[in-house]
Every structure is written in C-alpha cells, then in structure tokens.
Amino acid sequence: MPQLHDETGEETYAVLDGLRLHDPSRRGFASDNSSGVHPEVLRALAQANGGHQPAYGADVYTQRLQAELADVFGVDVDIFAVFNGTGANVLALQALLPRWGAVVCARTAHINVDENGAPERVGGMKLLPVETPDGKLTPELLDREAWGWGDEHRAQPLAVSITQTTELGTCYRPDEIADLAAHAHELGMKVHVDGARLANAAAWLDVPVRAFTADAGVDILTWGGTKNGLVFGECVVSFDPGLGESLRYLRKMDMQLASKSRFVAAQLLAMLDDDLWLRSARHANAMATRLRRGVDLLPAVEVTQPTQSNGVFAILPPGVADRLRQRFAFHDWDAARREVRWMCSFDTTEQDVDDFLAALEEELVRDGG
Q1: pLDDT, mean of residues 205-220
Q2: Among 135, 241, 246, 295, which one is least packed by beta carbons within 10 Å?
Q3: Which residues contact 102 (CB under 8 A, 6 or more apart)?
Q4: Which of 219, 209, 2 is nearest to 97 (CA)?
Q5: 157 SS3 class
C-alpha cells in the first residue's frame, strides 16, 4: 500500500479493515469543516435509513423540518435543503434578484473571496464588495455601493448579503441587523444572511435565532449545518412567501436538489433535537474563548479581531506559524501580515486547546518571544 500523509505532512494512521486512513485522535485548528460528524447526527441518518420514502423533498423528514424551522423562527417559512453552503448562497441570492441585479457585500464575504466566482458565473449576478474593519456592514457602508438605480450602465444594487458570524469571527447584534435591514428596505433592497455559522452567533449572543433573523427584517438566509457537525447539507430559509416558487425551480437548475432529500433533512432535524445545534456551537465558542485567553498571556502574539464565535485571529512572529504547523494544522489568513486563523469545532477538547497553547509557547520561546 502506498504511504499516505495528512495535511501536516505526517504519515497517516494505519488502515483499519481497509477503511480508516487517518488517526482519529488527531485534531487541529484549521477549520470547523475538518471535524467529523456528530454521533447524534450519525444515529439520525441510520434511523432515517431503510424502507422507501418519496424523493426530492416530498418525504416526511423534510415536512417535519419545515414545521420545526417555522417554530424556531416564529413565522411561516419556505425551506429548501441543499448540498452545501456555496450552492445555498447562490440559490438564495438568485431568488432575490433579476438578471441585472447586484449584491452589496463585505470585501471579506465568503461569496466574494471563497466561492470561486460561483455567484457571478452560476448565479449571473454582480458583487459590489465594500471594505470593512471587522467584516460587518453598516447602513453607512452599504451606501458606498447602494446607488445608481435607473442607470442602465450600472448593475442595480438590489440585495445586500451579510455573514453571521462574519468571516473574521465577529458577530452582528440583533439591532445592527435590524438597522441594516431597515435601511436596505428603504432603498428597495432585499437582505440575505449567509448563516454558515448562524449557530455560533446564537450561542454568543445568547438570544433566540429569530431575534437577529426573522424579527430583524431578514428576507432570506442559509442555515448552516456542515460546520456544526453534519456530514453535508445546508438549508435555504425564506421568510418572503413570494420567493417560494422561484426557489423551487432554481434549486433544480443550480444542481442543489438531492433525490434522497430525507438524509439532508434528517441531519438538520437531529441538530434541532434538544438544541444540539446550539449546544455544539456553545462548546466550539467556549473552546475559542479558552484559546483566546491563553493567547492573551503571550505578549509576542497580536490578536487582530474580537473573539465572538469559534475563531481566533492573530499575528505571529516570523517563522513561528510554519514551525507550529508541523504539530497542528491551521491556515494563514493574511500571509503578508503573518496573520493566522485558528478555528475550534464541536469536538475540540480543552486538552486540544491546552496542548496547542503549550506548543505555541514553546515556539515563541525558541523564537525569543
């Protein structure tokens, strides 16, 4: 058998019965996408298996999910389960816009820097990015690109997209989203929320998720699941009853309609059961807070953003990141500034954090910091 290596370059765990190709005891801080699947989600998949159910979302699991999410948000909703976050974002934004529509977003928005042009190429929309200090848009920042209506030479800014929590780990307060949504609606624009880490926002804010979505004037959002313990799957949630028909057809056109949709819905239902989604996010946030407290004790490390979810952003002395990565996986955020990102997950342990901090301190001492 050829020798295999993981993302740190080390040899992987020995194969077990020809299936396991990694060491399951190893965890890093590269991404909450790197974690496995929550055991309760795996059990839900097994329970949903067996027998036959109608395909393409006509199953009982999807119907139950519709009712459960309506209860979560306190209003009637239209839901559309999809495969992934990029597909969810493209689908949601397409439903909001005519062909000549444009979307105002933060420069750091996932739709702008991490989706390989999918909104433009697949969705056929223009993105109008705005520079922000913390990944968050405000009414004033929105106005920098929300102009030119009626000018046939300019793509029309008809939607605003925000990420909750942001790509920089910061979190919008309910009043901030409400103010932004009210301003956008006054301008004739719709509001989309990329909720890949919506659970982490609810955990940090300690308020019902409806407080910063439906109650705040959001028109449509993507409910994230993959980063919080699912195998795969996200859900587009529309609060605008006029979007339902468009979403139904666009989902198929965008290749986001799963034939065996019950297995996406079953995972999301498992997350809603006994607030597993919130418990998992609270744990991930708590581990990031523990990491941040330890980092704050190291003078040579400069933390660059508030820690309001499950990520810590910091600048390290030259060479430290590369040496530390030999033991723990994590990514550069801005290599030119030596800024890195450390992400915690639902399965990150206190020992993981403490071991990482010890390794970081060792490298700093070696560096003279």
Answers
A1: 98
A2: 241
A3: 125, 126, 127, 128, 145, 154, 155, 156, 157, 158, 159
A4: 219
A5: strand
